[in-house]
Amino acid sequence: MRFKNTLFLLLIFSSSSILSGQQYIDDLGSEFHKKKRQEFREQMPQNSIAFFFTAPIMKRSNDTDFMYHQDPNFYYLSGWREPHGVLVIFKDDQQDNNGLYNEILYVREKNEYREMWDGRRLGLNGAKQMGFDRVKLRSNFIKDPFQIQNFSNVLSMDVRDDVRDFKDDKYDLYDIQNKFLEIIDDKEELSGLGDIKKEFKNSSVNNIMSSLRQTKDSLEIKLLTKAIKISSLAQIEVMKAIHGEMTEREVQGIHEFIYRKYGAAHEGYNSIVGAGANSCILHYVTNEDINIDNELILMDLGAEYRGYTADVTRTIPVNGKFSPEQKEIYDLVYESQEEAIKKAIIGNTFNDIYVESLEIISRGLIKLGIINDPKEARKYYPHGVSHHIGLDVHDPGSRTLEKNMVITVEPGIYIPENSDCDPKWWNIGVRIEDDILITDTEPINLSEDAPRSSNEIEKIMKLDSPINQLILPDIND
Ligand code: GLY
Ligand code: MN
Ligand code: MN
Q1: Between residues 56 and 324, which one has the greater pLDDT?
Q2: How many domains is the chain built from?
């Protein structure tokens, strides 16, 4: 027993990801974030200063907020997941009475009363433990002079258009940002000091952040792989469990329950679960149809695991067997995706993948008599085929592929009612989306666990699911 306790304590104190007093887990660890700040600094222009602001607390209604989600750039550079913070990074060492520094993290003060209601705040000590030498309370941000006029370039994420939180106590971020904007605007009045307002507006922050975030470190690939594995498992379980009496909402619930079961705290984006006509709405998120039997159902969902999000789509026949028309369209999208994935190699571009997928879809749609001219294909395949994934489901990054990028390959065909083709094709919408790791050699399909071919899908849909053992009482209304 005693031994067990000692081991337990050792485990707690030896883990780099759990800090005393910290109320969340950061698998990346402070060394990762510190390294990224240094990489950011190296790309900053000469004699520059950069400002990052935490994401706002967004009101849902009355006194209820949306779940807080940190701005991904802020998180990437700091590991900090609380609101009301500012990160300042300097290109060059600065000096004051306390010595040299090249970054400052401003954070919320601790507040016993608020912490009782809303959860712990890490405060200055917590921030220090996360690898910051210079930490200050947010109230200081307004007072600190910064000597903006001494810098040739002022970089910042764009805060002007953002809706920030108005309601925290007297040092709310809105005040802080207004003060910041005043500094920037005043600066413009001072002649001969460069076009700082322009620099502020057309920030190079996004370009630098994009160049850092587009290729993933091994730790990030590990987290992404887990998010994708969880999402793929959920697709498998739904394939086994789904039947004609289920609703779109119930299908969504099974996916999201499985995410939580495997430790994913969120969905990386609003879950898209659309049957029949709804499968033809690209980002259908209402998910409220209750009559789905005999339809194709398109399920585009992604677990967010420790901040990193998957983006996986499967389209399946609710009754377990594709109709001849559903199968024709499905197999065409599948063939297009199979060939497109092969193009996901170093040096190729998103466009190379897209052109490959479009050619196959155009040819197939002509063969099926749905279109007459390849130019018409875009009517039924109206979106791009690839984007990066990471901390954002649409992560920033170059359109030219490099090793350790993780991208989607997601062709689709959508034929809404009243389309200019035989009505037998109407209300069929198919997207197949997989998450692909770019390597030195072949692309690796990180979501390959979830069956993709029509045969494999029909086969797995015959299996029983543990979900079907969950029988709940009726609610009479
Ligand atoms: N789930 C959104 C997308 O596939 O891009
Ligand atoms: Mn996608
Ligand atoms: Mn998607």
Answers
A1: 324
A2: 2
Q: Is the pLDDT of residue 157 over 90?
A: no
Q: Please work out whether the CB of residue 101 comes within 6 Å of at least one atom of ligand 1.
A: no
This prediction's pTM = 0.89
- Tokens 């879809």, located at residue: 361
Q: Which of 272, 254, 289 shows the shortest CA–CA distance to 393?
A: 272
**What's the CA-to-centroid distance between 168 and ligand 3, angstroms?**
35
Residues 200 and 260 in one domain: no
Asked if residue 154 and residue 66 are part of one domain, the reply reads: yes
CA of 20: how far to CAs of 25, 107, 312, 447, in Å? 11, 17, 36, 36
Residue 173: give the domain boundaries. Answer: 44-213
Instruction: Give me the residue label for tokens 């993948």.
Output: 353
DSSP code per residue over 145-177: -TTGGG-SEEEE---TTS-----SSTT-HHHHH
Question: Ligand 3: distance of its center to the CA of 175 in Å?
Answer: 37
pLDDT range class, residue 84, cuts 50, 70, 90: confident
What's the rounded Cα separation, in Å, for the pair 321 and 325?
11
Lowest mean pLDDT among 9-13, 174-178, 312-316: 9-13
- Which of 169-180 are b and which e, b meaning 16 or more Cβ less than 10 Å from the residue's Cβ? eebbbbbbbeeb
